[in-house]
User: What shape does this take?
Amino acid sequence: MKHIVDAVLSEDTSPQEFNSLPVPDNYRGAVVLAAESEMFAGMATRDKDPAKALHIREVPTPDIGPDEVLVAVMASSINYNTVWTSIFEPLPTFGFLQRYAATVPGAEKHDQPFHVVGSDLSGVVLRTGGAVRSVKPGDRVVAHCLNVELTHPDGHDDSMLDPEQRIWGFETNYGGLGELALVKANQLMPKPAHLTWEEAAASGLVHSTAYRQLVSANGAHMKQGDVVLIWGAAGGLGSYATQLVLNGGGIPVCVVSSPRKAELVRSMGAELVIDRSAEGLRFWSDEHTQNQREWKRFGGLVRELTGGEDPDIVFEHPGRETFGASVYVARRGGTIVTCASTSGYEHVYDNRHLWMRLKRIVGTHFANYREAWEANRLIAKGMVHPTLSTVYGLDDIGEAVSEVHANRHDGKVGVLCLAPQADLGVTDPETRERHLPQLTRFRI
Ligand code: NAP
Assistant: This one.
């Protein structure tokens, strides 16, 4: 790989030179193994250690289909979907790979006894398939993780509705946590020039998701002045949601679990913050019973901060532990918009609070092609900033994913893949200088 890294670092390598760089037959990637899918059987979710299941292995470089691109990955980031993959919950991902291989011509290569994970990247285009016109070798890119076929009419208003919609690196193989990655050409977007490789790789998945969830008409369609309750406001999704609400003239009410995280969201400009640990919020009295008095107390804490207003929008993802409270505290006519269930996917809420007060629950998932581009544009213009906190080497992938699983991280955790060190890849130092305080506020 050294010749590829040298070509990227030299910065004057031509597209022709990139195209003629030999592509190795194998590369190093972060994998889980089908043979180990049962390794955590019978264990509680919190006791499953991703570091035991993730390995760095040499894998064969895949063939490139007509609409595909092989990318030299300079950096990637940890997403929670890699936590799920590496603890084999709710299902091992090998079933997704087998179905993809069985249903889509050309996708047979995805069905392997290994799964290279990862749904973000920044890097440089190495090779393009015969039908690709949108990028060329040498282009500096980031990837969004929407993989679609678009052969069915359902996907043509909103590509997330394509029946063959998949998340790259989760439901497909050859993801971003490796030295090379295979993507569809339409996943690639220009790398924001003022960012380092690891900063550029931080935002794709979570920012696009938060954008659809909050801003898009496919999500909550936030408007100026909306009060938005954001769970996990210093985490991956939440740290972008907080910025989007502030940019859009909304009023974020940020929920976090430590003074340090409270400080982080304040540093982004949020004024209304609830520390759920300091408040001792517990919405379940036991495994089967929710404590409605606690919902009410939580609603009171929100009103104290907002001057008596209830949230127009609740930005949901913790799931089972918070969902009942989220439905309760949303204002009359308000929206609970959910994209996940980290603490459990069987939610319990009191439906009287939903129908009598005319609230809506909106389900949302990643982002369509256009939403992902709009989200990337905000990053490129310096209107939303990556929330990178720590950076690991590819060899330390297990530790990086375990930190996220244990909720010991802030914002986003980055991973250097081919980048030999952090802080490389900036081609617009003036813009970077202007935004430096915002770009570094999550850094530890
Ligand atoms: P993250 O970086 O771990 O952040 C999640 C935040 O949620 C944490 O910082 C934590 O904040 C808070 N949290 C965790 N458990 C909680 C609980 N029981 N009650 C209240 N708050 C809790 O993860 P993420 O990247 O934001 O992802 C969050 C979830 O969304 C994951 O399940 C992920 O798989 C899913 N997701 C789905 C999509 C999609 O397209 N559908 C996209 C991205 C992510 P505090 O401890 O500070 O409160």
Observations:
- Residues 79-81, 205-206, 209, 231-232, 234-238, 255-257, 261, 276, 317-318, 321-322, 339-340, 342-343, 365-366, 404, 407 surround NAP (CB under 6 Å).
- The chain has two domains: 2-207+367-440, 220-363.
